[in-house]
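User: Please look over both lines:
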Amino acid sequence: MDTTLTEDEIAYAGIDGQRALLRAGRLTAVELLELLLARTARLDPHLGCYRTLFASAHEQARAADVALAAGDDRPLLGIPVAVKDNLAVAGHAPSQGTASPEPVGTTDAEIARRLRAAGAVIVGATKLPELALWPFTESMTFGDTRNPWSLAHTPGGSSGGSAAAVAAGLVAAAHATDGGGSIRIPAACCGLVGLKPGVGFVSLKPDTEHWHGLSSAGCVTRTVADTVTMLNVLQDRELTVTDPGPLRIGWTFKAPLPTPVDPELRAALDRVVEVLKGLGHSTFPADPAYAGVQESFLVRYLVGAADDLAKLADPSVTEPRTRLVGAIGRRLAGRPLQRALRLGRTAAGRLADLPDGAQLLLMPTMAGPPAKVGSLQGRRTLALAGRRVPFTPAWNVTGQPAISVPAGTSREGTPLAVQLVGAPGSESLLLSVAAQLETALDWPATRPPIASWDR
């Protein structure tokens, strides 16, 4: 290993930077893995990112070194990545965040298969709340996952373990899923890039769909370039970042239900509007027509949770709030679900054309900065959680892509974020504008204050 490189320089080099170091021979895949595992051993007891680390990771790294020596140039060859603990990985029993004794998988899901085919070293499975239900990552079985920017705060959810691991430099990228904001919310809480692709963009195989069409799969990373690399591995429609030219970008603070927005988030969005103007884009207020969206989301979410609960080997070992959501969902599985699906199709047709001729729509990702760990408990969780994240679920209902990007920090030092929404099929356009904002705001240069708690 090149001893002139510091641990942080390697850990925060991202996919592209780590890939360059491997190909230049400045470190081996085994050395990279061991550095990140040692970092994990030191930091993860504070954070709680991982449910489990995979014993096969060293074997994967050794195989990557052989392939690198032979000139293999696969896009993720030798790069350690993590997967959320709801993904089928051969030899692993995904917990779904629960204590249910789930069976060990014999085959990889399509996402895991593609990661392996691209040469990635799959390090381990990251934590999530039970059945991916909440915008925080806390569970009766696996405890609390904490935010590297402030251990008192949540990294968001449900992909909170993935986001915290990337933000802390334990891996350059991690798999994530989003059924109501679960890529974008953790990205927002942890200062990351989080693109929810359009529904069906990334295969959910062996599942055909999830939560009655609400869920998409993707990743969290620190940079737009790393998100592009990951998503081009996970699916076949090549994403590119280009000069988007001048665009009409609407902005709004309107959510499906009336929601107060924290002044710090309002100020952050206002700053981003000014940056977009400076980049040559036309910006203007534009409020979406959300009719039917909230009902469609809630019913599909609740019935989807009931479906997932019923699939567990032992649903009885889940938390009371999980079983409450499942019980409500079971009562909605007939006509209410069919009505919700119809409302969703209508909303998708209407909102595919963004308001007032906008080509993209800008809004907060969340209504406020990251919440304190443990601030939502018990049966009131369902009633209160949605107030914190009112801006993300609409775009699961419509199925169109949306991306969360960093937009500064709060008074408490936690990340702030905004969300860009596009028309169906606009993933590359969203990434191109996000890349412009990354250059202007330079969020990769800002890292969590790990030294303040790494003692």
In short: The chain has a mean pLDDT of 97. The domain at 7-452 is CATH 3.90.1300.10 (Amidase signature (AS) enzymes).
